[in-house]
Design a protein that fits this description.
Largest sheet: 7 strands, parallel
Strand content: 15-25%
Helix content: 25-40%
Number of helices: 11
Bound molecules: nicotinamide-adenine-dinucleotide
Number of strands: 12
Strand order of the largest sheet: 8-7-6-9-10-11-12
Radius of gyration: 21 Å
Oligomer: single chain
């Protein structure tokens, strides 16, 4: 099987190269994003392997069908960037439904702890021999109320971590899990009662801009918001307005609505055109990271393993257990 890997960085080869060789796959790694222009690179390949900020729309699927490409291998869990309906009957879309929910949940907690206690800013101050702690006062998390939106694999890992801090957990999910030791409430109640809100639901038409002027207006003053799911869960302009109104004590974002083409790249020598991103990075109580919640050895190894198993199933006609269907 010949696989074209898009949007690759040196670390992508760390697991994929040795493991893919064991399967006998012919793999080609390019740095370019998968889009209308770069799709032609996949001519002669059996499958493409893409990541979170690549996209495949209906027109691209039609072209891939003509190019006899049989599959899209998503080396991630989310699949909002592929037109799944258009793919139906034309090619298979396979993903990695779970690799290390702990990796993302632990990172969500890292963001919360950092924006609460300003360790990122303390680090630069002490390196500058400025030992002043002005502006770094946080709050105890002990016995605070955390609202978890989406109680799937990552949400549950986050709940376990939050419970370790003796926090009271409120949760919202259209499919509540009765086995969890949490109090399910409506989204509105969660917004109103939580001291900390952490988003762990997928991006769908229903969840797009889940955090918007209305939901922000329900939140407690001094709330902490963490998003490690997908950027478009938050209406960025509404978030900026909320920050200007001092509604948020801290915001940790591992994902951003307009991250495509920006995250994972070094643009430090360029003029930034995205004014919302510039505005967000200017707030002292906002921490933005570049979609790296998944980035642990365990998670990246599991991603490579499952992606290659998906490719092998596609090649050998085995059951496609990780296929995404409409
Ligand atoms: P999951 O499918 O196990 O859980 C998602 C949960 O969200 C489910 O329980 C589902 O019922 C719930 N849900 C669906 N619609 C909802 C809604 N309208 N409101 C509230 N909850 C809703 O998925 P997961 O593995 O826990 O991953 C969650 C998300 O995390 C993924 O969709 C992905 O976008 C994101 N993610 C981010 C990273 C990263 O590196 N930052 C890595 C992996 C996954």
């Amino acid at each position: 099987m010949k696989i074209m890997f898009y949007s690759t960085k040196p670390y992508d080869r760390y697991w994929f190269e040795p493991m893919g060789k064991d399967y006998g796959f012919e793999m080609h790694f390019v740095e370019m994003q998968c889009d209308e222009e770069t799709l032609s690179l996949a001519q002669g390949y059996d499958a493409i392997c893409i990541f979170v900020n690549d996209y495949v729309n209906a027109a691209m699927i039609e072209r891939m069908h003509q190019m006899k490409i049989r599959g899209i291998l998503l080396r991630c869990a989310g699949f909002n960037n592929v037109d799944i309906r258009a793919a139906e009957g034309k090619l298979h879309v396979l993903r990695v439904p779970s690799y290390s929910p702990q990796a993302v949940a632990e990172f969500a907690m890292a963001l919360l702890l950092t924006v609460n206690r300003f360790t990122h800013r303390a680090y630069t101050r002490t390196r500058d021999y400025n030992m002043n702690i002005n502006g770094f006062m946080g709050v105890d998390l002990y016995k605070k109320t955390a609202g978890v939106v989406g109680t799937g694999k990552i949400g549950q890992a986050m709940i376990r971590i939050l419970q370790g801090f003796c926090m009271k957990i409120l949760a919202y999910d259209p499919y509540p899990n009765p086995a969890l030791d949490v109090t399910y409430v409506s989204l509105e109640e969660l917004m109103k009662q939580s001291d900390i809100i952490s988003l762990h639901c997928p991006l769908t038409e229903e969840t797009r801009h889940l955090i918007n002027p209305q939901t922000i207006s329900m939140m407690k003053k001094g709330v902490y918001l963490v998003n490690t799911s997908r950027g478009a869960l938050i209406d960025t302009e509404a978030l900026i307005d909320g920050l200007l109104e001092k509604r948020f004590a801290g915001v940790g974002l591992d994902v951003y609505e307009e991250e495509e083409g920006v995250f994972y790249e070094d643009r430090s020598n360029e003029i930034v055109k995205d004014e919302n991103l510039v505005r967000l990075t200017s707030f002292p109580n906002v921490l933005i990271t570049s979609h790296m919640g998944f980035f642990t050895k365990e998670a990246t190894k599991a991603i490579a393993q499952t992606t290659l198993e998906n490719a092998y199933a596609l090649e050998t006609g085995k059951e496609l257990v990780n296929e995404v269907r409409p």
